[in-house]
Amino acid sequence: EMDYIPPSLFLTTTFDGESKHDGNMFDVVAKNPIIITQMDIHTIATSSVTVHIWTKEGTLRDNLNRKNAWTKILTTTITGRGINQPTPLPPFSTPLVTGIDENTSRRSFYVTFEENLMVRSRAADNNGDGGGGFGSVAEVNEDLRMLNGIARSWKFGRSFSPWQWNGILYYRKL
Q1: What is the pLDDT of residue 37?
Q2: What 8-state DSSP symbol labels residue 24?
Q3: Residue 130: its pLDDT value, please?
């Protein structure tokens, strides 16, 4: 008999991005213990392209430029679905347990192409505090806060702040 796997929960940002770059870095803060399993991204590409994802515990502000502080969890070739459409990625090689305690509640992601194919949006303000700057809340639900981050050139290159990642983060409750 098969083990029951609960359906994925998710947190969606906008797909109305008006600008493109190689990639984005952003933080998520878990309010409850969760396992982050995969994501959909927003790309202008409609052909076969390679996408890379790195992650680490803690904020992206720490070790922003130290590539060896980050762990690559996905390199895959996908067919992009184009503008205003979620492009699904395969599940991460290792599901990311997040929010077990104070030390594991924050996780950063670096999602990137090797060229200008990632769609991004101006930093959103869903805090109600008039913010919208780097590290402010872009999207939130009962389990998770997704923060505004930065646009980043390929392979830990130049960064531009603040920008909101466009995509969907999938997770399960622990």
Answers
A1: 94
A2: E
A3: 46
Q: Which residues of the chain have pLDDT under 70?
A: 1-7, 124-131
Burial of 87 (0-12, 13-18, 19+ CB in 10 A): buried
- Is the torsion defined by CA of 37, 136, 124, 156 positive or negative? negative
How far CA 89 is from CA of 80, 141, 159, 168, in Å, comes to 10, 22, 24, 10
DSSP label of 92:
P
Longest CA–CA separation in the chain, Å: 52
Percent of the chain's residues with pLDDT above 70: 91
Instruction: Report helix, strand or coil for 38.
Output: strand
117-to-48, 138, 150 alpha-carbon distances in Å: 12, 21, 15
CA distance 42 to 20: 10
3-state secondary structure of 169: strand
